[in-house]
Amino acid sequence: MQTRGVTMEALLEAHTRLVAALRSPSCYKHPATTVDVIETHISTVLLAGAYAYKIKKPIRLPFLDFSTLAKRQHYCVEEHRLNCRLAPEWYLGVVPIVNSGNEVAVEGEGKVLDYALKMRRFPQQALLDCRLAAGELLPDAVTRLADCIALFHRRAARADETDTALQAEQRLRPVTDNLAELNELLATDMPAERIAFKRAEEFLSRQRECLAAWFEERQAHGYVRECHGDLHLGNVALLAASNELVVFDAIEFDPLLRWLDVIDEVAFTTMDLEHRQANCFSGLFLNAYLQRTGDYAGLTALRFYQCHRALVRAKVNLLRAQQLAEDAEGSNRSEALNYLHQAAAYTDPGWPQLVITHGPSASGKSTLARQLSEHAGFIWLRADIERKRLGGLSAETQSGSALNQGLYTPEATDKTYRHMFELAESLLGAGFRSSSMPHSYNTDNALQRRIWRTGQT
What we know:
Layout: E1 2-3, E2 6-7, H1 8-22, E3 35-39, E4 43-48, E5 51-56, E6 60-61, E7 64-65, H2 69-83, E8 91-100, E9 103-106, E10 111-120, H3 128-133, H4 139-155, H5 168-171, H6 173-185, H7 191-210, H8 212-220, E11 224-226, E12 236-238, E13 245-247, E14 259-261, H9 262-275, H10 279-293, H11 302-323, H12 326-345, E15 353-356, H13 365-375, E16 378-382, H14 383-390, H15 410-429, E17 433-437, H16 444-456
Parallel strand pairs: 15-17, 16-17
Antiparallel strand pairs: 1-2, 3-4, 4-5, 5-10, 6-7, 8-9, 8-10, 11-14, 12-13
């Protein structure tokens, strides 16, 4: 492949030489005793002293084009803009890498060789995938991450419902493209890969056809936003000193990979947690996000997006396998196969179930419902939260309503239970397990009558 007369191989060789030169601490204006390098399939990150410098590889792939200096500068600027939405104190700007007196320098004067995105550095062990592997990830951090993403989605730019470039057919193009690219990468001599891929591919095709109208409605209802686009555990850090969560590395190279249905973003995080055998944290994250946003309708396509996201990670691992040495190639191929099997597993939703917990205050309703949501994959519907939502209040806001007044009139209570019945019905129809926790009543018979009346009208 060539770019204006220069082969891609030559560009990558020049990039490799540049990175080798940048391993010298003398290239930087600030103190650095050593320079560590992290390679991804599309970027090189240099860790020097208190800072990290991310350089885009001069490559062109079906889903991105960093083949020219101008394009790499543009995407560095765009990446800075996007990530300042979630981590403004950590993204410091775009800096030139120059040839200064026949020496390579960062932020110096001279002929520009490339550009880097400069960031504050944090320890690799602070990344959530590392914390999870070390047994250091706690439920509080998972809940706070869900709250952070819910707030981010609420504030993110919203797609205009008339924007044809973001209509469902265009938004779902990455699903089609990923299937085609993954199909090309799969080994012909590995039938297990092919079987899992075919099962996932057929599921995505069926769901896309069945949910065509639903995908369009989501844009009209404001659920398509300029999201992060790559929200897996390796792109979130939890800093020990401040207990701060830092979400970084949003996708800059293709708008269609970040202008998403918000439930697509949630699907990526939950898929990643489940891939790492942290299903309890996946349930915790999902339920915390849903309770904060009320977007239970999004669950209609959750498994569709989880399946797609698992296939994306399979592709990324296969791309890495092509770039790495033979021993590392086998590891990445094995990981790709794990993702393919995970994608295939999302095609079977299992049996829908409904559990209703009820009883006097302090009888253990919340404890049981929480355990079901975290350990058995249930969606937790809470009457207290939904009652406030219907009344225009957030979950944390005190209603100030006395018994039989405000949010607790018989009419408000009937409205709450009708709403919860409709939510549970839609969740069961989509193949989910639902745990519904109505408010306390003095007698079980009163609750049963109310549920019966709600379900019959």
